[in-house]
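Q: Could you fold this chain for me?
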Amino acid sequence: MSFTEEIKTELCRGQVPDCCASAECLGMLLYCNKFAPDRIRLVAAMPEVRKRARMLFRRLFGAELLEEDEREEALILDDPESIRAVFDWYGFQYKSAALSLNRAVVEEDCCKAAFLRGCFLMGGYVTAGRGGYHLELVTPHYNVSRQVCTLLYEMDMEPGEVTRRSNYVLYYKNSERIETFLSAIGATGAAMDLMLTKVEKALVNKINRKVNCETANFDKTIDAANRQLDAIRDLEAAGAMEGLSADLRQTARLRKENPMASLSELAAKFDPPISKPGVSSRLKKLVRLSEELKTR
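A: Sure. Below is the predicted structure, expressed as structure tokens.
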């Protein structure tokens, strides 16, 4: 089940109070496939969404949405009297294609949430993964999209806007705004899942960064130790080791005895122990002497 399907399943489980039923149904209608005087057509892949739409139509208008013969995912209403009842209910002019958000239907905060829930159930999609986060509401009606955008602004949930293939899209790409939107429309479980996914993703990224950093540091330590060991072997092969100071000879001996030790670990093996910078300075000198030997 996709994340969008999980969200819509959660939304369809919720009850619809009497004052909100009209608002949720209006959201479905304004974001459905076709809302016109000759036909109302709602397309929803999920049976739960189709069941909820049928329940709302029976409850509000006493009308029955029927499955379209050619496509079982589509529900249609083509009875003229029933369609007129829907138009009259929302104050739309019958035989007119001009649709809009009737603000009288969304006066209360709960009704605003219900309206947006209906919009999402019929025209909403969410993705959350490696590619980032994205939520959008898609409708073919320009005026509707602009008015829903205004409503979202009033609710402090400013969306982005784009036109795509004659459809008008409101969208969010910020995960926190998506969480806010989902919580507002009643998908609190999905909002929490998104939050946990984001936290888990951040934790995994932090662990990966730490592992990569430690691996890089380990590789650098190994490379440096190998250069130091090569330098010591070159000095020994040239018979130059006896001419070095006691400190450098001791450093060379300890490095050979502890080829994988870090500078801190190596510093602790001196008697008496010396500082990490002190060990580093001595080893760099051994490498430098080896390089000078090669240029002679």
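A (continued): Residues 3-186 form a domain with the Endonuclease I-creI fold (CATH 3.10.28.10).
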